[in-house]
Protein: Dual specificity protein phosphatase
Organism: Plesiocystis pacifica SIR-1
Amino acid sequence: MNMHMGLAGFRWILPGQLAGSAAPGLLSSLSADLSFLREQGIARIVTLTERPLALDEAPELAAQFEIIHFPIDDMSIPTPRACEGLVRVLAPKLESQPVLLHCRGGLGRTGTIAACVLVDLGEEPDAALTAVRRVNPNYVQSPAQAMFITHYARWRR
């Protein structure tokens, strides 16, 4: 029996609106992971890895999502302007188009961008970092990523 328990590291950051995870297809089949995401109501997948998500294994399933590639080097940060461009696309439609953020392991880049979405929704940077780490204590892995959340908040004001 082939039972799929869910996408590796999948967690709701804002229930029903914003989730984070490891890369779909990393620890199980891409088809199983994409099916799981549809069951969760995810409409948009944001890939934060250097390379786009390889969707050749499941093109029909992949076509059911809006896929956004926003590359950030591992353990790194984007520019505030680039981050704002992404967040401004995502934040206004979270209720109608739930989003999955993912990098490879689903921790550093995923947690950083999730915290920036929370900042865009009105959270203070420290509260946003605390909120994402309440969901997963390993979200936001490097000091540069943690500092970026504050820098992003100041930049966009």
Summary: Strands lie at 11-14, 18-21, 44-47, 66-69, 99-102. The chain has a mean pLDDT of 95. The chain has one domain: 11-153.
